[in-house]
């Protein structure tokens, strides 16, 4: 942090070091200096660095948004409108159970969102020595993670395969004019295999949206013997019964949500509408209680609270238009709640646990050669819930 421009690796390590710890207790004499530097980075144009710095500040008790990076991201995403002084994309379409448009705007405040990207790039550089490698990115969604990945490895040639019509619109807008990025709107399982053209396959935050066995088998078909497959995704703790799976899903998602239930900052004028104030208060009151029920094994009570909260939130009908940028923290909670309930219904979100995922990969001929949990939500070991990054090699 004493260098003029800290690297993504330095911010990544600082974020990990400070999990559940206070910067002021670790470095009392330097905390204010570091916080000012982090604030400056969070207001820079770098999507990756700004988001990492904003995450650290938020978890140190100063909710921070990477505003300039968000603006830059939205300007790349095509048509936008000016709402209360902040550009916002005009579209707001509901696709399946998850709002793709909303993810494009609010996912940057998701805990550990770009830690997984930094860790993924580390593994790629460890196992892939070609600086101009040819990669497939499976399910990049709007392309936010891919943009950050390319800040670290800009020479990579990428075939981005995305099946969602809405996400694909953002994806193509984000990479207009980029000659090393080819975007294909297709189901990965249906894209013709050209194994001689691929150095590795990667996927960030998408594997639990696929039929996992099919995803693994198709990936193995693309790879040459010795080829690598990299994945970053959320996973839950081990389970044996349906009830255990529900409990682990609840604990996992709620652990992402609770840290964002902070009081709205006091200001002379509250810019929020009455429905927005009710929305924030509802989440702040309900989410911690639901987590308490989940942590004490009261799965039915926790599930009921979450389903009822989602029903109330959906009635507001908010699009990407918000009266204040800091509402992004609660809009992210809404999206996380959608994912949680979809997971309970085993629809769209089909999370499993790391050991089971690795075993399925082995069945497809992919051996796990590296694994780390870059953010933990439940438990203390790498087999527990959180954000995981893995590297596999084809036999």
Automatic annotation (TrEMBL):
The lineage of its organism: Eukaryota, Fungi, Dikarya, Ascomycota, Pezizomycotina. Residues 136-227 form the Methyltransferase domain. InterPro entries: Diverse_substrate_MTase (IPR051052), Methyltransf_25 (IPR041698), SAM-dependent_MTases_sf (IPR029063). This is Methyltransferase domain-containing protein. Keywords: Methyltransferase, S-adenosyl-L-methionine, Transferase. One of its GO terms (biological process) is methylation. The keyword Transferase applies. GO terms for molecular function: methyltransferase activity.
């Amino acid at each position: 942090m004493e260098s003029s421009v800290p690297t993504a690796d330095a911010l990544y390590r600082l974020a990990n070091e400070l999990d559940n710890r206070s910067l002021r207790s670790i470095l009392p004499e330097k905390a204010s200096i570091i916080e000012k530097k982090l604030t400056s980075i969070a207001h820079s144009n770098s999507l990756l660095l700004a988001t990492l710095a904003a995450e650290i500040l938020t978890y140190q008790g100063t909710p921070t948004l990477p505003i300039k990076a968000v603006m830059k991201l939205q300007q790349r995403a095509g048509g936008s409108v000016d709402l209360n002084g902040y550009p916002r994309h005009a579209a707001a379409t509901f696709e399946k159970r998850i709002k793709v448009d909303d993810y494009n705007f609010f996912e940057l405040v998701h805990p550990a969102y770009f830690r997984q990207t930094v860790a993924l790039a580390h593994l790629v550089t460890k196992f892939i020595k070609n600086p101009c490698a040819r990669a497939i990115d499976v399910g990049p969604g709007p392309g936010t993670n891919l943009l950050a990945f390319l800040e670290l490895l800009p020479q990579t040639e990428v075939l981005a395969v995305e099946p969602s019509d809405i996400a694909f619109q953002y994806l193509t807008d984000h990479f207009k004019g980029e000659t090393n990025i080819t975007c294909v709107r297709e189901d990965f399982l249906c894209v013709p295999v050209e194994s001689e053209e691929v150095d590795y396959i990667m996927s960030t935050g998408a594997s639990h949206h696929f039929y996992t066995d099919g995803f693994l088998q198709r990936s193995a078909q693309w790879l040459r013997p010795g080829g690598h497959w990299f994945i970053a995704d959320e996973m839950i703790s081990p389970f044996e019964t349906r009830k255990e799976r529900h409990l682990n899903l609840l604990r996992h998602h709620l652990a992402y949500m609770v840290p964002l239930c902070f009081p709205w900052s006091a200001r002379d004028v509250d810019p929020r509408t009455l429905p927005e104030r009710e929305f924030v208060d509802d989440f702040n009151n309900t989410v911690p209680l639901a987590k308490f029920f989940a942590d004490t094994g009261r799965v039915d009570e926790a599930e009921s609270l979450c389903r009822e909260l989602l029903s109330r939130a959906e009635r507001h009908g908010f699009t990407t238009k918000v009266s204040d940028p800091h509402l992004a923290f609660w809009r992210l909670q809404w999206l996380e709640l959608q994912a949680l309930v979809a997971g309970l219904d085993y629809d769209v979100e089909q999370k499993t646990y790391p050991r089971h995922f690795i075993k399925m990969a082995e069945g497809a001929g992919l051996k796990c050669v590296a694994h780390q949990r870059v953010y933990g939500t439940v438990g203390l070991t790498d087999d527990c819930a959180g954000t995981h990054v893995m590297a596999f090699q084809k036999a």
